Amino acid sequence: MDTFPLFLNLQKQHTLVVGGGDVALRKCRLLLSAGAQVQVVAPTLVAELAQWAAQGQVVWLARDYQSDDVIGQRVVIAATDDTPVNQQVFADCEARGILVNVVDNPALCRFIVPALIDRSPLQIAISTGGRAPVLARLIRTRLEALLPQGYGTLARLAGDLRDAVKARFGDNERARRRFWQSALEGPAAEQALAGDSAAAFAQLQTQLAQADDTELNRGAVYLVGAGPGNPDLLTFRALRLMQQADVVLYDNLVSPAIVDLVRRDAERIYVGKKASNHALPQQDINALLVTLAQQGKTVVRLKGGDPFIFGRGGEEIEELAQNGVPFEVVPGITSAAGASCYAGIPLTHRDHAQSVTLVTGHRREGEIELDWPRLTNPNETVVVYMGVAQAPRLCEQLISHGRAADTPAAVVQQATLPQQRVLIGTLATLPQQIAAAQIKPPALIIIGNVVSLADKLAWYRAQQTA
Ligand code: SAH
What is the DSSP string of 44-67? Predict the structure, then answer.
């Protein structure tokens, strides 16, 4: 983080704007709307500012800026086009520890004025650290469209009910949070958004009166598929649960960019799992899920790809079911689907492959062992998970059981992520290519005639990176 985000309470506080032009006018308007007392120092003012000064909305010092002007101010904004003056204002404030902003000059800013979506009391501030204000405004425009005005009403009503909710749940912070979660997503929200604040408030009160403690204190486990790694490929359900979690268990297939989207106050537990280096053995993970849920927590078990495709999700829910822990499984995009799309290799194709088989190259002990004769159909695509270490034996066995040595084959490492690598060859050449390029897990091997389409689809990759 380059800057520390905060919302400043400036009600009745002394603030100073240096300059009397249009930019100064905009800054004065913003400060006034936050309830600040505004002083303006400038030899002349634009008409509207002059009018505010005449009406006493701002105090005008009709002269050039002097260093002493900053004394006693909480916040100072320099909005002149005179560089030495701006520098002087910055230096004067820094010397006294006063928050200062020189408009359009990030180097001379102790704070930044963000782009703002105002549904007071709900506010969303957007900053690019002064680097790309236009981008911040673009994002603001998009969010503006997403957020109905009624959210301001909802925030105000929630504020009105806040003390009652606190009294009802006392120190039980978790139950309180769950109450708000369901209340703010329920019918009261719809009523507030529809503009009926009286009905919305009555609804919130009813929900509070009927809140069920057993329900609000109950823990649960969500086995959530996090997709192949790119955060764009999360489902909405995954993201919502990640935002509600008390604790999140994740392993190394879940990319840091995805872990970043977890609710900030949630506990994060890394449970590892690389082929041979288990940070936590599977039985311990299963037991931990049960213990955490029995403590009443909302537990999110984030799993790479889809939980039920080579994810041991089945074992985890078995343990939960045996212990009477409520659970839900949320599907994710499995890495075969992600790799296929991002490498431009369709897994099925009318002319090349009528079926696709997903297999794992990982065995509890020793060498890869698959039903080889079943994998030799030239019109079938085979996708091998956890197979790179065993690539030589895999390709050799397929060839010796009758799949053509020149069958196109690809390996896709870190599919869907910016670091994605794709190598294309044949069953005969792929093991050597994997070794030479030092391909490491996570990687998938895709075998079948569809791989030959990757070249034809090269334009597609080019478009994705353009
Ligand atoms: N449940 C996961 C699979 C877990 S097994 C899923 O549905 O995708 C782990 C294997 O998945 C890895 O060894 C690798 O073969 C594959 N994998 C997972 N993420 C991947 C990615 N981003 N790129 C390539 N392969 C990946």
Answer: S--HHHHHHHHHTSEEEE-S---G
